[in-house]
């Protein structure tokens, strides 16, 4: 099963063969570092929103409530859905969701297994940079047969937190400016290092990491101490003969990737964006930002 460190999985109710989910777009106070909170917009109380897990062929109904003071929508990024369900009301017949209203997005999962996202697609210049996004993953039944021992998803986001002088960190609750290009906090699943939760592994396990990016910046994600194989791009599997072995992967905005590696080098290993400014919290010297670790629970032979 997929784990999204520091972010919940969205529950559903099964009725007459349909999986019913509920998402609430609302203001969120998100703790990105101990004692340091941002006022943003998210789903069900978190930034990013809860991860949605489905299977190929599922029929789903996702009711989206709007508790914001502005209209919004949800786009199912990478999914082949009917036009009226695609969530771009300024272009398509898909309706906008006005404040204090809801809309039921209903469709069948026709894509194969893969990693996708959901996010607002109304006034995106503001709403995406306020935090409105989350992971949408179509599970692969073969992953449940023991080939993959641990499966992690990370949403990459970045924010301009206001009223913090450059190079300083102070506990408090801060507003963010979605229109600023002076981005100063870079998050994995809504947290900055060292507040991120490590990926725990055991020696010999095959690990999958899923990455999604809906922000402004591209992020070259680098894994220390291991080589990984890129197995899927934008939710589409890459044939075995075409897969690349790498240790750094550039994840552009709008992209998702799946990578796999074997846990064969015991220790505590960084996994992070390699842009130097993205490895800090408001440009302070200690390591921070879009950074987490792979942590072996027990080394072989120890």
Q: Topology, please?
A:
Layout (H helix, E strand, L loop, with lengths): L1 E2 L9 E3 L2 E16 L2 E8 L5 E6 L4 E8 L8 E3 L24 E7 L5 E6 L4 H4 L5 E6 L11 E10 L12 E4 L9 E4 L10 E3 L4 E8 L5 E5 L4 E6 L2 E2 L7 E2 L1 E4 L4 E7 L5 E6 L17 E6 L6
Parallel strand pairs: 1-11, 3-6, 4-12, 5-10, 11-15, 14-23
Antiparallel strand pairs: 2-3, 3-4, 6-8, 7-9, 9-10, 11-13, 15-21, 16-20, 16-22, 17-18, 17-19, 17-21, 22-23
Descriptive report:
Residues 40-142, 183-282 form the Plastocyanin-like domain. GO terms for molecular function: copper ion binding; oxidoreductase activity. The chain is built from one helix and 23 strands. With 302 residues, it is mostly beta strands. It has two domains: 2-10 and 19-140, Sandwich (Immunoglobulin-like), CATH 2.60.40; 150-296, Sandwich (Immunoglobulin-like), CATH 2.60.40.420. The strands form four sheets. Strands 1, 11, 13, 15, 17, 18, 19 and 21 form an eight-stranded mixed sheet that branches. Strands 2, 3, 4, 6, 8 and 12 form a six-stranded mixed sheet that branches. The two termini are 28 Å apart.
């Amino acid at each position: 099963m997929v784990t999204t460190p520091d972010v919940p999985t969205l529950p559903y109710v099964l009725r007459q063969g349909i999986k019913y989910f509920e998402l609430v777009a609302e203001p969120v106070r998100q703790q990105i570092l101990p004692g340091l909170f941002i006022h943003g917009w998210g789903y069900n109380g978190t930034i990013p929103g809860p991860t949605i897990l489905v299977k190929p062929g599922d029929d789903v109904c996702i009711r989206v409530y709007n508790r914001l003071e502005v209209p919004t929508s949800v786009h199912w990024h990478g999914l082949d859905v009917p036009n009226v369900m695609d969530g771009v009301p300024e272009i398509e017949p898909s309706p906008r969701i006005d404040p204090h209203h809801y809309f039921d997005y209903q469709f069948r999962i026709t894509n194969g297994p893969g990693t996708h996202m959901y996010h607002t697609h109304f006034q995106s210049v503001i709403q995406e940079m306020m935090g409105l996004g989350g992971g949408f993953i179509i599970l692969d039944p073969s992953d449940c047969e023991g080939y993959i021992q641990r499966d992690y998803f990370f949403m990459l986001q970045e924010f301009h937190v206001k009223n913090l002088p450059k190079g300083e960190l102070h506990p408090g609750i801060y507003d963010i400016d979605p229109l600023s290009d002076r981005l100063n906090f870079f998050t994995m699943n809504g947290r900055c290092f060292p507040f991120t939760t490590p990926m725990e592994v055991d020696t010999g396990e095959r690990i999958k990491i899923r990455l999604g990016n809906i922000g402004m910046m591209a992020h070259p994600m680098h894994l220390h101490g291991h080589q990984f194989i890129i197995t899927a791009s934008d939710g589409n599997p890459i044939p075995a003969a075409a897969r690349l072995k790498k240790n750094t992967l550039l994840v552009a905005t709008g992209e998702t990737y799946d990578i796999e590696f074997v846990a064969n080098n015991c220790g505590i290993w960084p996994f992070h964006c390699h842009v130097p400014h993205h490895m800090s919290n408001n440009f302070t010297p200690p390591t921070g930002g879009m950074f987490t670790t792979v942590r072996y629970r027990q080394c072989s032979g120890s």
